[in-house]
Design brief:
Distance between the termini: 19 Å
Mean pLDDT: 97
Helix content: 25-40%
Largest sheet: 7 strands, mixed
Radius of gyration: 20 Å
CATH class of the largest domain: Alpha Beta
Length: 349
């Protein structure tokens, strides 16, 4: 396909502008996707507000956005499993395929990954994207492309839950009920965890968690979280904690509510990359502590869960902004965090 497309570029901190670029041409093993929805991730907001995350520094003009869903409009000659008209979810990271991590199936740890919207790689707040066909997952007709875009954060939640060994009969606590906390709760629930408690300090986010199936929500600014969970479990504690807030206090509360031999999965990044943990208590309980980075081999599982009604992913969305209003959407998502749980940009009109 020849022609121009509209692209939203970050030209400075807190500033977006539109430019025209050539529609990308798919390589032999790629497909061209007309993007319909792109989710706004916390990393997008952090880059937009601060210009960097750790050693990843934005050098404008830069394109944000990596949670993408759309429709295939063109395929490269080597592509056999997709055709124009297929709705797809785009897994945003292309890895080398040759390093020890790729060869052992842990491709999310590839040091040479090319990941949308991770500097210096542009993201996909734009009308079209050419992407490796093997990283474009067809969704069923019963799903829409907004749900396709949300498979990316849901994959994070499933990777956390799977890493933690989530299974039927367990009781779990998710600390933090932002987008990643909610998808972690959904994933654990889809995998069979019997009761899931969710904690946060923002009422609207807790209300959303309750609406999406939390057995109980706890405002840890108003209640003693450890006492509350002990009360809910008759003093037994929980089998699994998924920590998504990146806050020391929440992580230590998680240690406090875990049963002996339980598992704590760290998902959220702290502001300075450091945490002070109650290691003595963790040692006394012989806890297992794990961390995750993005996800691997998860998209088919996440798509299946959504298609079967096990994860109502679209219900996490509180705000949809038209592409033309992306400046407003980004600003409001930063300034109104107490009300906006998850924003999505509608690219296609």
């Amino acid at each position: 396909m020849q022609g121009k497309m509209k692209v939203a570029v970050m030209t400075d901190r807190m500033k977006m502008e539109f430019i025209q670029r050539d529609i990308p041409q798919p390589a032999a093993d790629e497909v061209l996707v007309k993007l319909e929805y792109v989710g706004v991730c916390g990393s997008d907001l952090h880059y937009f507000e601060n210009g960097r995350i750790s050693d990843f520094i934005v050098k404008p003009p830069f394109v944000l956005g990596h949670e993408a869903g759309g429709v295939v409009v063109e395929t490269g000659p080597a592509v056999k499993h997709l055709k124009p008209g297929d709705k797809v979810a785009l897994e945003p990271g292309k890895t080398c395929g040759h390093c020890e991590f790729c060869r052992t199936g842990r491709y999310n740890l590839c040091p040479d990954v090319v990941f949308f919207a991770t500097p210096p790689v542009d993201g996909v707040f734009q009308e079209y994207a050419a992407h490796e066909a093997g990283l474009c997952f067809k969704i069923p007709d019963t799903m829409n492309t907004m749900e396709a875009a949300l498979i990316e954060p849901l994959a994070v939640g499933f990777h956390a839950a799977v890493t933690g060994g989530a299974r039927l009969g367990q009781t779990a606590l998710v600390t933090g009920s932002g987008c990643i906390g909610l998808v972690s709760m959904m994933a654990a629930k889809a995998l069979g965890v019997s009761r899931i408690f969710v904690s946060d300090v923002v009422r609207k986010r807790l209300d959303k968690a309750r609406a999406l199936g939390a057995a109980e929500v706890i405002n840890s600014a108003e209640q003693d979280l450890v006492k509350a969970v002990n009360g809910l479990t008759a003093g037994a504690g929980v089998d699994l904690v998924i920590e998504t807030s990146g806050v020391d206090a929440a992580a230590n509360q998680g240690i406090g509510v875990l049963k002996k031999g339980g598992t704590l999965v760290f998902v959220g990044y702290s502001k300075n990359g450091m945490m002070n943990l109650a290691i003595g208590s963790a040692l006394d309980k012989e806890l297992t502590m794990k961390t995750i980075f993005r996800y691997r081999h998860i998209y088919p599982l996440a798509i299946d869960a959504v298609s079967r009604g096990l994860a109502d992913i679209k219900s996490i969305v509180t705000n949809v902004f038209d592409f033309d209003d992306i400046q407003k959407g980004m600003e409001e998502s930063i300034r109104n965090k107490a009300e906006i749980v998850k924003s999505v940009i509608k690219i296609a009109k």
